[in-house]
Amino acid sequence: MSKLFNRYAAEVIPSKAPRTQKDNTKELKKLRSVFGEMHPSELSTMHCQQYLDVRGRSSKTQANHEIALLSHIFRKAMQWGIVDRNPVKGVEKHKIVARDRYVEDWELDEFLSVATPFIRAWVEVKLMTGLAKAICWPCL
Questions:
Q1: Hey, where are the domains in the chain?
Q2: What is the enclosing helix (H) or strand (E) of 120?
Q3: How many C-beta atoms lie closer than 10 Å to residue 76's C-beta?
Q4: What is the pTM assigned to this prediction?
Q5: How many Å apart are CA 7 and CA 18, to the nearest integer?
Q6: How far lies 6's CA from each of 2, 12, 25, 51, in Å?
Q7: Interacting residues of 13 by C-beta distance below 8 A, sequence separation 6+
Q8: Helices marked H in 12-104
Q9: Over 80: is that where the pLDDT of 4 sits?
């Protein structure tokens, strides 16, 4: 798996967006620590599910991201002729519950009191136009 991880890191990760590159590199490090010494053909769906379950004890979201990356690595490995199946197929990811709490006016006011002028203006535009929730502050 180590060679497969290296090839993926060299050929696929650089073609992704900068933030995705950073995230994939961290996720790959976690996957490498568990599966690095295995041969790709030895990896089974059971191994992938066990990884997801154990990793999910500390972070269900991260476990889902890491197993999704492993699945993509195996899709590429199939294209490269290294394996003929994706052992991640059939793994049941953790269900993540979306937040259902809205920010109250006083919380927004408190935040805006310490925000930079740019962020204050951006929040105003967001409030006036109803921009998608997917746009996040750290992404700016």
A1: 2-79, 105-139
A2: helix 117-129
A3: 16
A4: 0.73
A5: 18
A6: 6, 10, 11, 20
A7: 20, 21, 24, 25, 28
A8: 18-35, 45-55, 60-79
A9: yes
